[in-house]
Amino acid sequence: MPKDSGIGASTKRREDVRFLTGAGNYTDDINIRGQAHVYFLRSDVAHGTLDNVDTSAAEGMPGVVKIFTGADFEAVGGMPCGWQVTDKHGEPMQEPKHPVLAHGKVRHVGEPIAAVVADTLAQARDAAEAIVVDISDLPAVIDMKAAVSDGATKVHDDLTSNLCYDWGFVEENKAATDEAFDKAAHVTTLELVNNRLVANPMEPRVAVGDYARGTGDHTLYTTSQNPHVIRLLMGAFVLGIPEHKLRVVAPDVGGGFGTKIFHYQEEAFCTFAAKACNRPVKWTSSRTEAFMSDAHGRDHVTRIELALDAENNFTALRTETYANMGAYLSTFAPSVPTWLHGTLMAGNYKTPLIYVNVKAVFTNTVPVDAYRGAGRPEATFQLERVIDKAARELKVDPIALRRQNFVTEFPYATPVAVEYDTGDYVATMDKLEEIADLSGFDARRKASEARGMLRGLGVNCYIEACGIAPSNLVGQLGARAGLYESATVRVNATGGLVVMTGSHSHGQGHETAFPQVIADMIGIDESMIEVVHGDTANTPMGMGTYGSRSLAVGGSAMVRATEKIIAKAKKIAGHILEASDEDIELKDGTFSVAGTDKSLAWGDVTLAAYVPHNYPLEDLEPGLEETAFYDPSNFTYPAGAYACEVEVDPETGKVTIEAFTAVDDFGNVVNPMIVTGQVHGGLAQGIGQALLENCAYDENGQLLSASYMDYAMPRADDLPFYQVDHSCQTPCTHNPLGVKGCGEAGAIGSPPSVVNAVVDALQSAGKDVTHIDMPLSPARVWAAMQ
Amino acid sequence: MVQVSMTVNGRASSGEVEGRTLLSSFLRDDLSLTGTHVGCDTSQCGACVVHVNGEAIKACTMLAAEADGAEVTTIEGMANADGSLNVIQQAFQDHHGLQCGFCTPGMVMSAAALLKENPEPSETEVRDYLEGNLCRCTGYHNIVKAIMAASGQDVSSIAAE
């Protein structure tokens, strides 16, 4: 019987009412009296020396307030990188300077060169057209392997090469891994591309800087997944503003998917310019600007090898990946191909030896950083594709080969440094086979063939590491930030609660789901609990939302703070009821003395906390407000099994998704409706990557896909109804809610099943096709069939 | 500058705008009706869909001056007279047809236009009609389901919680 409230209930989202009536408050909806607008003049060449920027003709144009160039930012810091990777020789990565506005050189199409602040956006744009920029073109560095070859043009003259780092993991395993390959009965090798994507939240980025001359206080309104992180990075490393004089507000945010984690130049610019111009300064990205300034995702080129013994047991795995960093290091870019990728290469399998090599490369392209899944989709794609290829080479059932090699005992320490606490990969695969009706596939294939279509089935597993933390571990791995989360729970005198969380909701439904947890803990109605997030002025220092961490880490902080609240409330109740607080029980919002009929309502106790007339003042402070910072002891490890059925039109190469089934183990689930919705969205992005999306550059570094005319976003008619199940639940053992995280699973798990299915379809027609690089456009599939 | 007057959500509204001002800008910046969103600059995303004289129009493809004298309805004018969610809005909430909410106003306006011309659309018809509305959060499953539910169809067989 489904619950109708609290943990496990599909409570309808309270935030929906404002979004459905046009009453949301997104950053672009914020207009401050007297604000000016900025337009960024961006480089239209990929690589060149910036010989001259002549703003003189533009200065006198109507409405122009001030024009800024790179020279105006020489005295401030550059954009910081939040993660330092150490290479296989023990040396730190190469870390280039990253200016707010280009200075000396331009290094990618879209890099801001000058910024025009004017009364209106139209005036700023008009004036920017009058700026004369002289750029001497240099050869563009685009192809990653060419970029690290001898004699390649350097993206950064002050670095020794275009190689950011050459990372080996686990370096100590390399010799043993190589030896296992020498002894293998069978080796399957696959070379593949994980295509470059653009996150494309529907709300473009926006920044509004404001400066209060009277107090010297700065405020930045921005489209961010983590306002505290932006305050720390921008205040401490770029502009030199102490945190108590800088407030960062991220109000309603229209999707993030990773690309709104990072600190961007436009945020620093608007904050800086608001003081310099003594006016609020607003920037709203156009979609074309978004394509050439939002951090991109993926863009790996990989060779993966899987060694098996004569009984088809996996004995070793070896990979070499080139990972594109773009022209500069975005905030967390170095961590994505390393610690978020290499550590997941074991997947769901007990492969004893793994060696991962990653070469991170600078190119004249937009910086690349975390995008939904971040490193884990790249790991899953390689692994699940090479296993599928091995099964076909060995002529064994791909599902049976996976089952044979599953990790079945937990906790399980992988050879790539992480320990899975719980999981049941057999159960998720069993469930998948059942609800996707895999036994009926042959009949469906025949029906398709009768219509002249090819039908394919692709199955794969995935595992991911979520709830990113713990801080002491990530510190050792090179993170320059902690990864705890915070919550302050404030109980009002009349019994209502406000949760001030360091997490940030930009579509995930925290305002609904977080109260479900507290409502259960206290036994009160969800409507008595309000969630506040997104403003550094009224939330405790928190690290924000990414890596499917909000409930696992932020929710745990909230639970800890609520536990403190309940402990204190029991002391107050014990005093009033003249009993030991150890004998006080809290159930259904009522405190009672165990074994008696003495009781007090929740509201009586909360009132006593603020009107402490009958109150143990000598032992206990008045008030009822507690803060907790929660730093987990491990990542969480959601896992699952996915199945995709496609039809391929042999005449055109067009692929249609006929059915998609996702079985996920997320541990405990607070709001099944929201969790299902998260999986749907992830699946759409993963299917989009597999079939449609591709961020393309030409050899000169021109961005060919800079609008929705050229970048194929998944539309309603590209996608099916999905079948989603999360009834297999092995709760996380180390957080108080037993939750694992669900935000990224769909995007991680779906690309390999789509490609596996298309390869299966083509092979069913006798085509000798073992791999097609994504996106599987009709042209690529048709070409592969010829 | 051009003087424009139109009826927006039943209220007479006017302003003085540059000739190049888009209807989306006029609604957002001059009338402070910020429920109409702008998500692209090539008329692809559909976040700005409004009704002009009863027809669904992308407000970023029309000049404010072109709408002079028109009857315009935006997302702010869609709720029932008592302020409660209308049938389509309620179906979006009931079936979790929105996450970040940014594309939602355009989705609701397109859905209303669809149901006006096709009161009981099939799944395929809904998906085809939404060709001009992009959503990056939901994967469309619950949007399609919500629109079919709003049309009075039984959607209980469509997988979900």
Tags for this entry?
heterodimer, A: 786 residues, alpha+beta, Aldehyde Oxidoreductase, domain 3, Aldehyde Oxidoreductase, domain 4, 3 domains, 5-stranded mixed sheet, 19 helices, 30 strands, 27% helix, B: 161 residues, Ubiquitin-like (UB roll), DNA polymerase, domain 1, 2 domains, 5 strands
Explain what you see.
The complex is a heterodimer of chains A (786) and B (161). Chain A has 786 residues and is α+β, with helices and mostly antiparallel strands. Chain A has three domains: 27-138 and 202-255 and 260-293, Aldehyde oxidase/xanthine dehydrogenase, a/b hammerhead (Aldehyde Oxidoreductase, domain 3), CATH 3.90.1170; 296-469 and 634-785, Aldehyde Oxidoreductase, domain 4 (2-Layer Sandwich), CATH 3.30.365; 484-630, 2-Layer Sandwich (Aldehyde Oxidoreductase, domain 4). Chain A has 19 helices and 30 strands. In chain A, the strands form eight sheets. Chain A has a seven-stranded mixed β-sheet, with helices on both faces. Chain A has a five-stranded mixed β-sheet with strand order 7-17-16-15-8, with helices on both faces. In chain A, strands 20-28-29-30 form a four-stranded mixed β-sheet, sandwiched between helices. In chain A, helix 14 (510-522) packs parallel to helix 15 (550-577) and helix 17 (672-691) crosses helix 18 (745-764). Chain A is globular, with a radius of gyration of 27 Å. The two termini of chain A are 54 Å apart. Chain B has two domains: 2-77, Beta-grasp domain (Ubiquitin-like (UB roll)), CATH 3.10.20.30; 87-150, [2Fe-2S]-binding domain (DNA polymerase, domain 1). Helices cover 29% and strands 16% of the residues of chain B. Chain B has helices spanning 23-30, 87-94, 104-117, 123-129, 141-150, and strands spanning 2-8, 11-17, 49-52, 55-58, 71-73. In chain B, strands 2-1-5-3-4 form a five-stranded mixed β-sheet, sandwiched between helices. In chain B, helix 2 crosses helix 5. In chain B, 57% of the residues are buried. The model of chain B has no long low-confidence stretch (mean pLDDT 96).
